[in-house]
């Protein structure tokens, strides 16, 4: 069954002050890890708690991981408590990149059975609606509820390696087409894509204003890509962030999708270097 996915600015504004609603600001910029917090401090949705994607949704990078490996279960459970999230909480996550970053939070929270949705159009849509903003740094009210955290939708590197032989998975890469084709790699040490992968840039899920295309349109577009069971597909990107956007888009389109190779190309590129690829 497809997951909960999106909420629009009007819907969020109507429920913003309800005690069971928690809003997380997930703004993040790959080339400046401090910018997300500084943008939050300039203004944000009232009551929203800033989430540092690099440190609170990811573990430190190592020589064997991608750039944003999953945070350990215990620490993530601590974070959920810190943000005041309980098993009955309704969570809304947002960014300013059409959900490209917030989708990672959505994917991680949804696996814990949490009711979570992404603000369609993100903070820009909130500003266009001329709703109130705040400069108050929110810390949230700690929850006494403790989640038994797990990430059953994560596909690990070895499973992808084995699939090159067994063809168990079909991989869909969410990066821009130039990076997928190895023409403009400025981040990772090797250019290209995982053998057998196909490319569906996450930006293709969005309209010109950074909102998701209508669900019906996405359903038609994605059905042209998905030729087998949804359980066969694994989504990835550069570091396990924007790959979640394709999962979000699919569920919004009414198509079940969950599995993400979190290590993504940044981990695979390191593997290629260790194996002597040039």
Q: How is this structure best described in words?
A:
- The protein is α/β, with parallel strands linked by helices.
- It folds into two domains: 6-128, Rhodanese-like domain (Oxidized Rhodanese, domain 1); 154-274, Oxidized Rhodanese, domain 1.
- It is 32% helix and 12% strand.
- It contains eleven helices and ten strands.
- It has helices at residues 9-15, 35-42, 53-56, 73-82, 102-110, 122-128, 157-166, 177-180, 215-223, 243-252, 264-274; strands at 6-7, 21-25, 49-50, 90-94, 115-119, 154-155, 170-173, 198-199, 233-236, 260-261.
- The strands form three sheets. The chain has a five-stranded parallel sheet. A three-stranded parallel sheet has the order 8-7-9. It has a two-stranded parallel sheet with strand order 6-10.
- Strand 7, helix 8 and strand 8 form a beta-alpha-beta unit.
- Helix 5 (102-110) crosses helix 10 (243-252).
- The relative contact order is 0.17.
């Amino acid at each position: 069954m497809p997951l909960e996915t999106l909420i629009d600015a009007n819907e969020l504004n109507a429920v913003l002050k309800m005690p069971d609603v928690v809003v997380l600001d997930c703004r993040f910029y790959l080339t400046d890890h401090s910018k997300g917090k500084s943008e939050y401090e300039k203004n944000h949705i009232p009551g929203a708690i800033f989430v540092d994607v690099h440190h609170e949704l990811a573990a430190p990078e190592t020589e064997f991981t991608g750039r944003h490996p999953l945070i350990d279960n215990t620490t993530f459970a601590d974070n959920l408590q810190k943000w005041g999230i309980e098993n009955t909480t309704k969570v809304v996550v947002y960014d300013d990149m059409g959900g490209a970053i917030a989708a990672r939070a959505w994917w991680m929270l949804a696996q814990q059975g949490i009711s979570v949705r992404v603000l369609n159009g993100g903070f820009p849509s909130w500003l266009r609606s001329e709703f109130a903003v705040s400069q108050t740094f929110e810390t949230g009210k700690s929850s006494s509820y403790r989640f038994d955290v797990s990430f059953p939708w994560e596909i690990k590197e070895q499973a992808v390696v084995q699939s090159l032989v067994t063809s168990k998975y079909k991989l869909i890469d969410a990066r821009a087409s130039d990076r997928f084709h190895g023409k403009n790699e400025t981040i990772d040490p090797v250019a290209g894509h995982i053998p057998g992968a196909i490319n569906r840039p996450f930006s293709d899920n969005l309209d010109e204003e950074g909102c998701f295309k209508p669900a019906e349109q996405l359903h038609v577009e994605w059905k042209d890509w998905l030729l087998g069971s949804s359980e066969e597909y694994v989504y990835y990107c550069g570091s396990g962030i924007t790959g979640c956007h394709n999962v979000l888009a699919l569920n919004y389109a009414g198509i079940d999708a969950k599995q993400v190779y979190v290590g993504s190309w940044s981990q695979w590129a390191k593997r290629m270097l260790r194996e002597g690829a040039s």
